[in-house]
Amino acid sequence: xxxxxxxxxxxxxxxxxxxxxxxxxxxxxxxxxxxxxxxxxxxxxxxxxxxxxxxxxxxxxxxxxxxxxxxxxxxxxxxxxxxxxxxxxxxxxxxxxxxxxxxxxxxxxxxxxxxxxxxxxxxxxxxxxxxxxxxxxxxxxxxxxxxxxxxxxxxxxxxxxxxxxxxxxxxxxxxxxxxxxxxxxxxxxxxxxxxxxxxxxxxxxxxxxxxxxxxxxxxxxxxxxxxxxxxxxxxxxxxxxxxxxxxxxxxxxxxxxxxxxxxxx
Length: 265
Hints:
Helix content is 79%, strand content 0%. It is flat. The mean pLDDT is 76. The chain is built from nine helices and no strands. By secondary structure, the chain is mainly alpha-helical. Helix 1 runs antiparallel to helix 4 (81-98).
């Protein structure tokens, strides 16, 4: 359903028929509904959290990506989000099916955790991943910004062929996605710290590891970007480059975290 919806959205983007896009979006909505039913049914039958395994985590990422797509379409209609974000969601969904069911949370932790602790885990994972996902959208917009800027300078951009977003619009998208991702990541980090303190019976750990420093470093990169934009007025190319650098750090942090979780289990 995601693939068929993406194909129809691509056809409408190149000015085939506007109503084709409507059917494409309906297929995407239907795909979300089916995926939600599958997730709820799996949890009901297997009685396991979605974050227990790497495949479940990837499935949740694909669902989040489509939901972010709908939110972006609501605020910024008639743009290229369906063309870019839907293939990523399909990639995560296929990968969740093909990858081995590697556990990322030990059963011992789940057995001794209270309902409140599990709720904190779900909130921490969901908000952190949503933050990383929004940073990814900002990174894609930044790459497209730099590509468009180069084509404009080289006078190779032909506006009559396809609909292309303006540089000002892309800069706005980058800024808003970074702000939203920063807020979600901040709350996710605070919940993670709370989980860490609770796991140690109220005693905070004094030792620091790369696993703890990478998310904080990611947060610091984006905080510098937001402060620079507010005080110095950083815009355009420099903002796009900072966004790409921040997302690379976020990817390193996410991959390192997943590798540690899979090794421990």
